[in-house]
Design brief:
Elements (H helix, E strand, L loop, with lengths): L2 H14 L13 H11 L3 E5 L1 E2 L2 E2 H11 L4 E6 L4 H9 L4 E4 L4 H10 L6 E2 L1 H8 L13 H11 L4 H8 L3 H15 L4 H10 L11
Parallel strand pairs: 1-4, 4-5, 5-6
Antiparallel strand pairs: 2-3
């Protein structure tokens, strides 16, 4: 059994210890992932970036195109800005490091929502120091800044809406406005751009 299979078996065992989570299948490659998803129709897929016969991000894109309600959380041993952008564009709900905390993975699985893209807050700091090619964005409203700070803390739109006492649709509207104002392609990129321009502080991602 290779390292990927061992990791998958460990994750399956971990999930079996929680009453609200259940592993219904393990796929080792893109082909079997597509086949098993079609047969078993899971609510959520935990996707490794590296599969035997291909790229987990490409597989994520295929799955989210075929099953619009499917949620995909992507795991990778190495995460950089390019991978994050690819995962977001492929329709993933979250991107997590394989060496991250178990509680963070469980939280991501329980709260994953289509249309959201969440990463661990500590990873944001690694991105802020990368290239700074974005022009200074226009001013943001107080409410937009509140939404940004909560996004930086790793919260999804459902939780943010609850925290701010607004509807999820209203919260999604704020997120869309933020993406447009900041010239970002994902919620993650919006947070990174905001941090680079000091619209929110680095400590906002430590919640």
């Amino acid at each position: 059994m290779d390292d990927h299979q061992v990791f998958a078996q460990l994750v399956a065992m971990m999930l079996s210890q929680h009453d609200d989570l259940e592993c219904i299948g393990i796929a080792a490659d893109v082909a079997s992932a597509l086949e098993m998803t079609a047969e078993l129709r899971p609510d959520l897929v935990l996707m490794d970036v590296q599969l035997r016969d291909g790229d987990g991000i490409a597989a994520t894109e295929q799955l989210t195109a075929l099953y619009p309600d499917l949620r995909v959380v992507v795991l990778s041993a190495f995460i950089d800005r390019a991978l994050m952008r690819r995962a977001a564009r492929a329709g993933a709900c979250a991107l997590l490091p394989k060496d991250g905390e178990v509680d963070d993975m469980l939280h991501a699985l329980r709260t994953a929502r289509r249309g959201d893209f969440v990463v661990q807050p500590r990873l944001l700091k690694e991105l802020v120091t990368e290239n700074r090619g974005h022009a200074k964005p226009p001013p943001l409203t107080h409410r937009e800044l509140e939404v940004l700070r909560l996004l930086a803390a790793g919260l999804d739109t459902g939780v943010i809406a609850h925290e701010l006492g607004i509807s999820v649709n209203t919260c999604r509207g704020y997120v869309k406005t933020l993406l447009a104002k900041l010239g970002a392609h994902s919620q993650l990129e919006a947070v990174v751009i905001a941090m680079r321009h000091k619209l929110i502080g680095m400590d906002d991602g430590d919640a």
